[in-house]
């Protein structure tokens, strides 16, 4: 593609600074390797096969996906080493999982029920292959996961006793790390998660089910690798782009934010202005500090409210700050669902468009 | 398509009950006609050219769209009579608007600035046609809109004095009708909107700029047509599907909700269960009553929280209510952004899939 100035991009549109992306990918990969942690980047953030391939090229062990549909997209692009971080339930998922395995994918799955284990076992048998299984432990986020300790034993044994699934170890997602916490609060969650997993591991070891892998999420973890204790692998997603919430949580600096939304002021008033992006551009994902994003270059402006296609920027005082036609860049609260709204993003370097990044996995919720 | 039971649909997926859709369309069209109101349905809710054509067949005067990209989708499907309820700003929008006009569209635009009026004027001149213009008045929602009264006069005159734009009248969107209000509060907003528009109209009439059209939104208005006073046309969107928030606002009954999300329980616990839809399926759009939707058939269950791909359902007591593999139907808080997340919905009638409804305008935020 010839050089193309961002002034020629219609709005609203997602811009991705490729210099920042590359720095983020290289930094986290190097830090994981230095600590002997395998990196399984979560592709739910970018949903791009091009960026996933880049993560593998830089040394990632495999790719994490949230849904089977995302796995299918990666597999179709020739990216075969996949961790599906989601229990697969029901006969339609079984058929699709079988198809995925029959078409060259090497898959691991995290799960917390016999029903999900049965899906994996049957798909593996039909495809004549093996599927790695991680037992998801509820480390107090209270989403998916069996209770820790002795309670994890029956499912681990159930999986280990079958042909097809290959018992590999434990999986945890301490999603409450995203809560409204100070750094000490986050440190305590990591400590508690490590304690829970260590106790569960010891019970499994005594039962002859020693875990070879202990898989931990996410970007708040990857920013605190020195506190992870016994993990053997890590699954950050947001770290590739970062966002307002990872900045607020102290998991990155604003300069590490690679993605922003380019918008145009469409209506200007004394105490507010309207931009051409609302919840269908930014989502209603919240921040503990209120507001919906960082308006780059305008620290005094608050992204205060939205409707579907309008964003309302406000400021104090009665002096109009923005004029109709002005273009702004906004870092959203949470980048992952924003990317999922857009068919593509614009990969830019020093103000020039270098590449269109298609959101290949957009909307693959099934 | 042969009959196809909804049991064969993979989850999560949006189901649309076609009997309810048809009843909603026919009822609102009939009520508008009985009151002499032109119906300009807002297509942002369904973003489907098939449903838009159905609305026109039933007597709608034209189609409202939020963004130029949605107008392009409708135009390409042969649906030419369009109201773009959004100011068009900047040179790229000008080029696209010109193209739209050159390819057969008959367009009206709502706007609140000279910049937006200039875009319309220039596109109309280039395409050798006319574009209807409605002056958007801020009726106290404080989004887009010039202040009411005398302040509306200069822009109305600016538009009326040009060739290309054809001054048609006034446009209002009292979005604060969706607020946390009782019926008396909503009545007062409608009354206030009517007063503001009447005063502004009188000023324009005295200035020789009598409005031929006064255009009002939305579903809360269309449910209260007897309170609208001086409107000549109405632009409801959500009424085709309805959702939890239109039920809560008293703008429809639960039986009028045509759209729901089919989900599967993927993890079951004593006091909660996890479904396979989170904010990438439902969005984080809020309700004044808390929670994220109505779980059909389970009034005791609360859709309490979400992450991107997980929904957490809770209940009181310590008796497990749901089992892994169970399928549920959930009416979301706000259906419009939900439809926008999904490439298609399943049009069903009495439990059988009758038609796939493509979300043709999905993601057309530009």
What does the model show?
Two copies of one chain form a homodimer. By secondary structure, chain A is α/β, with parallel strands linked by helices. Helix content of chain A is 30%, strand content 23%. In chain A, the strands form two sheets. In chain A, strands 1, 10, 11, 12, 13, 14, 15, 16 and 17 form a nine-stranded mixed beta sheet that branches. The interface between A and B is large, with 58 and 58 residues.
Give a quick account of the main beta sheet of chain A: strands, pairing sense, barrel closure: 9 strands, mixed
Mean pLDDT of chain A: 97
End-to-end distance of chain A, in Å?
34 Å
Overall 3D shape of chain A: globular
Helix run count of chain A:
11
Radius of gyration of chain A: 22 Å
Give the DSSP E fraction of chain A (strand runs of 2 or more residues). Answer: 15-25%
Task: Indicate the multimeric state.
Answer: homodimer
Low-confidence stretches of chain A: none
Series of H and E elements of chain A: EHEHEHEHEHEHEHEHEHEEHEEEEHEE
Count of extended strands of chain A = 17
The helix-and-strand class of chain A reads: alpha/beta
**Largest inter-chain contact set:** A-B, 58 and 58 residues
Fraction of residues in H or I helices of chain A: 25-40%
Give the helix/strand layout.
The structure is a homodimer of 366-residue chains.
Chain A: E1 13-17, H1 18-34, E2 38-39, H2 49-57, E3 63-65, H3 68-76, E4 81-84, H4 91-102, E5 106-111, H5 114-127, E6 131-136, H6 153-160, E7 165-172, H7 183-206, E8 213-216, H8 219-222, E9 233-234, H9 244-248, E10 259-268, E11 272-275, H10 279-282, E12 293-295, E13 302-306, E14 311-314, E15 327-332, H11 335-339, E16 344-349, E17 352-358
Parallel strand pairs in A: 1-16, 2-9, 3-4, 4-5, 5-6, 6-7, 7-8, 8-9
Antiparallel strand pairs in A: 1-10, 10-11, 10-15, 11-14, 12-15, 13-14, 16-17
Helix pairs in contact in A: 3-4, 4-5
């Amino acid at each position: 593609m010839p050089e193309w100035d961002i002034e020629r991009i219609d709005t609203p549109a997602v811009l991705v600074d490729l210099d920042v992306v590359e720095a983020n990918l290289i930094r986290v990969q190097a830090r994981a390797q230095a600590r002997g942690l395998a990196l399984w980047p979560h592709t739910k953030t970018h949903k791009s096969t091009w960026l996933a391939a880049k993560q593998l090229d830089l040394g990632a062990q495999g790719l994490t996906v949230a849904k089977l549909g995302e796995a299918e997209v990666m597999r179709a692009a020739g990216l075969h080493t996949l961790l599906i971080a989601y229990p697969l339930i029901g006969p339609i998922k079984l058929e699709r999982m079988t198809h995925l395995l029959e078409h060259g994918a090497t898959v691991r799955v995290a799960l917390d029920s016999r029903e999900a284990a049965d899906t994996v076992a049957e798909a593996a048998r039909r495809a004549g292959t093996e599927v790695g299984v991680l037992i998801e432990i509820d480390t107090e986020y209270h989403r998916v996961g069996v209770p820790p300790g002795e309670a994890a034993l029956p499912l681990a044994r159930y999986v280990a006793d079958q042909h097809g699934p290959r018992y590999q170890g434990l999986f945890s997602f301490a999603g409450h790390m995203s809560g409204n916490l100070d750094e000490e609060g986050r440190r305590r969650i990591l400590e508690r998660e490590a304690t829970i997993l260590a106790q569960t591991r010891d019970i499994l070891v005594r039962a002859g089910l020693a875990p070879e892998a202990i898989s931990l999420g996410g970007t708040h973890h990857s920013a605190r690798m020195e506190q992870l204790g016994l993990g053997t692998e890590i699954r950050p997603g947001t770290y590739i782009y970062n966002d307002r919430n990872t900045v607020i949580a102290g998991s990155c600096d604003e300069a590490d934010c690679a993605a922003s939304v380019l918008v145009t002021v469409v209506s200007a008033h004394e105490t507010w202005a309207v931009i051409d992006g609302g919840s269908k551009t930014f989502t209603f994902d919240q921040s503990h500090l209120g507001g919906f994003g960082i308006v780059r270059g305008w620290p005094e402006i608050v992204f205060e409210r939205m409707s579907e296609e309008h964003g309302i920027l406000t400021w104090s005082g009665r002096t109009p700050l923005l004029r109709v036609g002005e273009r702004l860049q906004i870092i959203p609260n949470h980048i992952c669902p924003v990317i999922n709204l857009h068919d593509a993003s614009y990969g830019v370097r020093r103000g020039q468009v270098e590449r269109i990044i298609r959101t290949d996995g957009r909307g693959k919720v099934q």
